[in-house]
Amino acid sequence: MAAALRCALCSCLLLCVSGIVPKPKNARIISVNLHSILQWDAPKFHKGNLSYTVRSKSINYPGNTYENVSTNLRLTECDISSLSAYGDYILQVRAESENKYSDWVTIRFKPMDDTVIGPPDVKVKSESGSLHVDFIGPFAEYEHDKWPIKQYYGSWNYRILYWKKGSNTEVAHVDTKHNSEILSQLEPWTIYCIQVQAVIPEWNKTGELSGELCEQTTHNGVTPVWIIVTVLIGSMLVVAISVPVCFFSFLYLYRLIKHVFCPSYTFPQHLKEFLSKPPSGSQFFPPLPQEEHLSYDKLTVISEESKNQSNETGDETRKTTEHLRDAEQEHSDSSIAPAS
């Protein structure tokens, strides 16, 4: 009996102490692509700063006890992405101030059911009268790891929704298990808008729609003749204009460079005439006149000794001359005598 009274008294005291700190409000879980955050609103408390403790327990194991996920939190949120995506959990959060604490606030969380599947990344390309749509993702991210969400679910499809831009026509859709799809049988030269989302039939889940992308189709993959003619004529005009411009620009540049580095000058006229005549000899000056056209006197200069020698030589010459004359006279006389 005494033990029961003590237990009841302790329980009353515990309730009194715990009732001093108000409990958090509006507990909720924000989960996108298995990135999960437990959030709550702070209670009104004017006797000091509050901290928070978050703990979890798996429903899959009935005998399992609560384990702390995070303690002494100052913010009104807690990242619970570390919990297994395949589990089913009970989460609790309470407020604490010094040695006082509030009641637990409980919320249930099943990641595979509760998480929101985000939109995939989409690319659209117009080619051959059709629209080629490529998509990938979404991805789950935790810390530095990244992996596709489709790995967690047994079935996974992509739903492509498309419609004419600016019209009230019904939105058409195509489901595929692949990461690309070709939308054919579209009206030519028409703008279509496209959105893509993930669909998981076994889990009855539909992902968020991607951003709206619009692209114009071509005419059955064949370029119109007027476009070909326009491009051809334009190309010919460009060639016809650019070739002369390039030629005259090059010619002007050539002349400019030649004028700067090799300036032109006028060759003297007399040198032109001289170089134009055929070569007549190795002399560069006119030849001397003939001797018969020259008149000159001979002048001999002799010294005194030479004069005496000349006189003696003259006397000898005279004597020799007289002697020769006498000899000739005698010879002539002797020739005449026999004749008589």
What's the total count of β strands?
Answer: 18
Encode the helix/strand succession as letters.
HEEEEEEEEHEEEEEEEEEEHHH
CATH topology of the domain at 15-114: Immunoglobulin-like
Q: What integer is the average pLDDT?
A: 80
How do the helices and strands line up, and which of them pair or pack?
Elements (H helix, E strand, L loop, with lengths): L1 H17 L6 E8 L2 E7 L9 E8 L8 E7 L3 E3 L9 E9 L2 E2 L3 E5 L1 H4 L6 E7 L2 E7 L2 E4 L2 E4 L8 E8 L7 E5 L3 E4 L7 E10 L4 E2 L6 E4 L8 H37 L7 H8 L27 H36 L1
Antiparallel strand pairs: 1-2, 2-5, 3-4, 3-6, 6-7, 6-8, 9-10, 10-15, 11-12, 13-14, 13-16, 16-17, 16-18
Please name the defining characteristics of this protein:
340 residues; Immunoglobulin-like; elongated; disordered C terminus
What would you say this structure looks like, in words?
With 340 residues, this protein is α+β, with helices and mostly antiparallel strands. Among the domains are: 15-114, Sandwich (Immunoglobulin-like), CATH 2.60.40.10; 121-216, Immunoglobulins (Immunoglobulin-like, Sandwich), CATH 2.60.40. The protein is built from five helices and 18 strands. The protein has helices at residues 2-18, 111-114, 225-261, 269-276, 304-339; strands spanning 25-32, 35-41, 51-58, 67-73, 77-79, 89-97, 100-101, 105-109, 121-127, 130-136, 139-142, 145-148, 157-164, 172-176, 180-183, 191-200, 205-206, 213-216. Strands 3, 4, 6, 7 and 8 form a five-stranded antiparallel beta sheet that branches. Strands 13, 14, 16, 17 and 18 form a five-stranded antiparallel beta sheet that branches. Strands 1-2-5 form a three-stranded antiparallel beta sheet, with no helix packed on it. A hairpin with a 2-residue loop joins strand 1 and strand 2. The longest helix has 37 residues, at 225-261. The radius of gyration is 63 Å and the shape is elongated.
